[in-house]
Each structure stands twice: as structure tokens, then as C-alpha cells.
């Protein structure tokens, strides 16, 4: 089983570092040097996560030459669902017209797309389903505290999708390594709105519905998680790092990507990096970068491609495939 087509979408509105200089106490130079981010795309107030997902899903189906009715499994990875329930995948299924598809969400933060691919691969491999549509979609601007200069410079909105279906022998998803460390879950979270801290006037006043992050802790975890899970996934595939032709990392911070490249011994030129143009789009970042690489001709038949992610949970996930 493997990816036979991809698609992505970003909302048209662009928020630059210079725009942020007018909103909080920050600077373009500070943001660039610490994150590598130059700009990010922001959805309009009336636009929801499923709206972005519909655009990327449609693009992926078009690239695959399929109709919505050809899909019988849909997985949406997101931490910014349209609402608590029904799941965003159900809303996407209806909007897309994929009436034959079983649909559900995964909530694993920035690792969600890799988790979704792993789930789809196993469910299609059993023969229970034939073609899956996996989407990572986020409107992080809706949960970003635009008064917090430490986090508001980091995030953007986007969606990316992939069609998973049978591929020729020797190609497709070769291996994956997934994991979680719940002992550090407090490092990246939205406190209020769930059953632990229900919504109230007090939680709103205290800005507890916005994303909170312990940046230094996440940075240290991220590099370690990417390296260790990448090594495990490559070993499970029976390969070495020298066999990897292209790496699609989670686009959170250029310094994290650079540090991981050095520790893995893979040239930075083999990494796809678009964090400068989109910022951190959570579960959408890997499918967005993958789709851009596919459309740019950077992914060729027979290439060994590695997807590597980390995020809330704290969770991590790396997948190796032969294109």
C-alpha cells in the first residue's frame, strides 16, 4: 500500500513578520533567526478546517483521477476540528460527496498525518477497504493567542491530503515508527474546553482556550524524537540513512530541521523545507510539503522518501516509503 496522489491548499491571506511587528512586541529579524519563518497563511474568520480540507481532498482526488465515490475510507488528522462532534471527517465526507466512505478523526497534533497514513495502510492492507483519503488540516489561527509573542509568530493554516491505495510490489509504505510520551503532555496543550476544565466565563477571561507551549522543552524533545524514530523506521525498512533520497519533516522550526539533518547524517539539501512560507501548520505541514515536492518533481519513482514528525502528546512518528 502506498500514496498514489497528493493535494494541498492554503488560504489566500498572508500574514508576514512585518505584519506581526504591528501586533506584538517582536521583529522580523527575531522571528527569522529563531524559527526561519517569514510568513504564514491565515484563514478568514468564517472559514473552518473542513473548508480547507475540502480543497486539498479535491486536489488529491483529481491528481489520482478518482471520483469521491471511489473512496471508502477517510481519515482526518486535526486539533482544530470544526466542532467537538460530529467529527470533521464526517463533515468533509458530506461536502466531498464521498457517501461510500467510513470517516473518522485522529487527534495527535503535528504527528496526525503520519498516524493517519499508518492507520489507513493497515486498514486497506486487510482488504476491508480499497482506497483511503488521509487529510491533515488545521486552522491554528483560531486557537492562537495573538497577544502571546512567543507562540503567535509560529503558526499558520493549511490542509494536505493523500490517497492511499495498492501500489506495485516493492513500492509504497515500507515501515513506520510511532510513539508517545504522555508524561510531558503539559509542554504543548490547550487547557480549557474539555471535560477536565469545562468552558466558563473564567476560562475565557484567562485565555485558557488558546494554545500554550513550553518552547525549549518541545525543541529538545523534537530533535531527539525525529532522530530516534527515523533511525527505527529506517532500520525496520531494511535500509540505511544513505538510502534515503528525500526527507519530508514536520515544518515547525528550521533550526530543528537543521539539527536533525546533522544528527542523521543526511544532507540538508535532501530535506524539503517550506516553513519560511507557511510556518507551523501542525498536521497539515507534512502533506503540504509532500505535495509541493511532488508537484515540483522532487519525488521520483523508486525514491526512498521519509516523513518525520513530532508534536503534542508528546508524540512522534516517522514513515519510510518507496515512491
Describe this entry's structure for a reader.
The chain folds into two domains: about 1-170, Peroxisomal Thiolase, Chain A, domain 1; about 175-320, 3-Layer(aba) Sandwich (Peroxisomal Thiolase, Chain A, domain 1), CATH 3.40.47.10. With about 325 residues, it is an alpha/beta fold. The protein has helices at about 15-20, 30-35, 50-65, 90-95, 110-125, 200-205, 215-235, 255-265, 275-280, 285-295, and strands at about 1-10, 15, 40, 75, 100-105, 130-140, 155-165, 170-180, 190, 210-215, 245-250, 305-310, 315-320. About 35% of the residues lie in helices and about 25% in strands. It has ten helices and 13 strands. α4 links the parallel β4 (about 75) and β5.
Distance between the termini: 11 Å
**Count of beta strands:** 13
Largest sheet: 5 strands, mixed
**Which bin fits the share of residues in helices?**
25-40%
Number of helices in the DSSP assignment: 10
Mean pLDDT: 97
Q: Helix and strand string, N-terminal first?
A: EEHHEHEHEHEEEEHEHEHHHEE
Q: Per DSSP, what share of the residues sits in E-state strands of 2 or more residues?
A: 15-25%
* 3D shape: globular
CATH superfamily of the largest domain: Thiolase/Chalcone synthase
CATH topology of the largest domain: Peroxisomal Thiolase, Chain A, domain 1
Across the major sheet, the strand order is 1-7-6-4-5
In a few lines, what is going on in this structure?
The protein has 323 residues and is of the alpha/beta class. Helix content is 33%, strand content 23%. It is built from 10 helices and 13 strands.
Amino acid at each position: 500500500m502506498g500514496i498514489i496522489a497528493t493535494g494541498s491548499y492554503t488560504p489566500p491571506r498572508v500574514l508576514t513578520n512585518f505584519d506581526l511587528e504591528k501586533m506584538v512586541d517582536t521583529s522580523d529579524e527575531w522571528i527569522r533567526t529563531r524559527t526561519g519563518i517569514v510568513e504564514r497563511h491565515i484563514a478568514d474568520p468564517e472559514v473552518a478546517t473542513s473548508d480547507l480540507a475540502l480543497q486539498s481532498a479535491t486536489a488529491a482526488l483529481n491528481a489520482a483521477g478518482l471520483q469521491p465515490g471511489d473512496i471508502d475510507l477517510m481519515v482526518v488528522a486535526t486539533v482544530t476540528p470544526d466542532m467537538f462532534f460530529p467529527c470533521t471527517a464526517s463533515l468533509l465526507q458530506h461536502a466531498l460527496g464521498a457517501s461510500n466512505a467510513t470517516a473518522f478523526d485522529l487527534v495527535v497534533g503535528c504527528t496526525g498525518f503520519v498516524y493517519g497514513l499508518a492507520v489507513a495502510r493497515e486498514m486497506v492492507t486487510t482488504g476491508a477497504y480499497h482506497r483511503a483519503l488521509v487529510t491533515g488540516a488545521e486552522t491554528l489561527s483560531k486557537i492562537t493567542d495573538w497577544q502571546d509573542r512567543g507562540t503567535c509568530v509560529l503558526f499558520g493554516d493549511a490542509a494536505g491530503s493523500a490517497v492511499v491505495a495498492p501500489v506495485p510490489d516493492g513500492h509504497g509504505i515500507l515501515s513506520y515508527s510511532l510513539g508517545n510520551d504522555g508524561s510531558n503532555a503539559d509542554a504543548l496543550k490547550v487547557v480549557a474546553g474539555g471535560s477536565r476544565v469545562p468552558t466558563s466565563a473564567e476560562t475565557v477571561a484567562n485565555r485558557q482556550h488558546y494554545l500554550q507551549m513550553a518552547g525549549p522543552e518541545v525543541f529538545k524533545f523534537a530533535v531527539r524524537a525525529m532522530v530516534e524514530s527515523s533511525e527505527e523506521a529506517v532500520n525496520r525498512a531494511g535500509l540505511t540513512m544513505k538510502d534515503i533520497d528525500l526527507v519530508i519533516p514536520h515544518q515547525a522550526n528550521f533550526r530543528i530541521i537543521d539539527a536533525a539533518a546533522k544528527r542523521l547524517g543526511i544532507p540538508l539539501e535532501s530535506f524539503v523545507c517550506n516553513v519560511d512560507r507557511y510556518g507551523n501548520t501542525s498536521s497539515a505541514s507534512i502533506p503540504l510539503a509532500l505535495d509541493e515536492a511532488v508537484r515540483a518533481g522532487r519525488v521520483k519513482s523508486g525514491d526512498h522518501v521519509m516523513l518525520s514528525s513530532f508534536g503534542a502528546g508528546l508524540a512522534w512518528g516517522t514513515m519510510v516509503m518507496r515512491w
